[in-house]
Amino acid sequence: MGITLTEPAAQHVKSYLENRGKGIGLRLGVRTSGCSGMAYVLEFADDINDEDEVFEDHGIKVIVDPKSMVYLDGTELDFGKEGLNEGFKFNNPNVKDECGCGESFNI
């Protein structure tokens, strides 16, 4: 299935990469954290490791390590603004439950 980006998410990442002046894409992963068990990790990527999986959507590369891919396969990354708040939203079909604060999930 892979990882996909909506157009607003891709535009947001592209803008940040341009302002940053370097980087090849976005690294997406998960870590153990929060009250539900797992939390998303997003950071700019400057390189690709041999074992990484790379997906490209709307001209943006999304890089995922193999351990995180088990939890992220099929995820769509969106970006939106609600009032004064803005941020990424993870539409992950694998999630069974999320914590009340929205910071963590479990599968």
Uncertain runs are none
CA-based gyration radius: 14 Å
Number of helices: 2
Order of helices and strands: EHEEEEHEEEE
Multimer state: single chain
| Number of E-state strands | 9
Structural class: alpha/beta
Strand content: 35-45%
Tell the overall outline.
Answer: globular
Binned, the helix content reads: 10-25%
For the biggest sheet, the summary is:
4 strands, mixed
Span from first to last CA? 17 Å
Average residue-wise pLDDT: 87
Strand order of the largest sheet: 3-2-5-4
Comma- or semicolon-separated keywords:
single chain; 107 residues; alpha/beta; three-stranded mixed sheet; 2 helices; 9 strands
How are the SSEs ordered, and which strands pair?
Elements: E1 4-5, H1 7-20, E2 25-33, E3 37-45, E4 53-57, E5 60-64, H2 66-72, E6 76-82, E7 85-91, E8 97-98, E9 105-106
Parallel strand pairs: 1-6, 2-5
Antiparallel strand pairs: 2-3, 4-5, 6-7, 8-9
Overview of this structure, please?
The protein is built from two helices and nine strands. By secondary structure, the chain is of the alpha/beta class. The strands form three sheets. It has a four-stranded mixed β-sheet. The mean pLDDT is 87.
